[in-house]
Amino acid sequence: DVQLQASGGGLVQPGGSLRLSCAVSGFTFDEDDYAIAWFRQAPGKARVAISSITSLFGNTYYAESVKGRFTISKDNAKNTVDLQMNSLKPEDTAVYYCAATLDSDSAFEEYNHWGQGTQVTVSS
């Protein structure tokens, strides 16, 4: 049974940094085919994918809104995927979710394993 647990959200001032972590269980990072993504949902808006990483080559994706500020990484030994968020802006305020698929070719709408959200608030 695949399970994901997101953590690391909080309140931060504009320009600050936060690091989100997604702990994954139910498959093996250095053996299985998978992709893990971070999504976010701001109040009154749809949930959108902002970053992802795949299993085999660690290919990454970043939405334009976070490119150059956020960095996704995975730790095969710990089965975790982190999202380092720098230069945070008020518009980054959202609930952040990690999600997984056991097919690294999946489109974002096909991700079928989800963790609970973690709130990120960027405000002075």
Tell me about this structure:
- The termini are far apart.
- The protein is globular and about 45 Å long.
- The strands form 2 sheets. Strands 2, 4, 5, 6, 9, 10 and 11 form a 7-stranded mixed sheet that branches. A 4-stranded antiparallel sheet has the order 1-3-8-7, with no helix packed on it.
- By secondary structure, it is mainly β.
- It is built from no helices and 11 strands.
Briefly say what this structure is.
With 124 residues, the protein is mostly beta strands. The chain contains no helices and eleven strands.
Annotation, overall tally of beta strands = 11
Ranges with pLDDT <50 over ≥5 residues? none
Class from secondary-structure proportions: mainly beta
**Cα-atom radius of gyration:** 14 Å
N→C terminal distance:
41 Å
Our estimate of the beta-strand percent is over 45%
List the helices and strands and how they pair.
Blueprint: E1 3-7, E2 10-12, E3 18-25, E4 35-41, E5 48-54, E6 60-62, E7 70-75, E8 80-85, E9 94-101, E10 113-114, E11 118-122
List keywords for this structure.
11 strands; 124 residues; mainly beta
